[in-house]
Amino acid sequence: QKEVEQNSGPLSVPEGAIASLNCTYSDRGSQSFFWYRQYSGKSPELIMSIYSNGDKEDGRFTAQLNKASQYVSLLIRDSQPSDSATYLCAVNTNAGGTSYGKLTFGQGTILTVHP
Amino acid sequence: DAGITQSPRHKVTETGTPVTLRCHQTENHRYMYWYRQDPGHGLRLIHYSYGVKDTDKGEVSDGYSVSRSKTEDFLLTLESATSSQTSVYFCAISEKGETQYFGPGTRLLVL
Question: Which chain A residue's Cα is nearest to B38?
Answer without folding.
Answer: A107
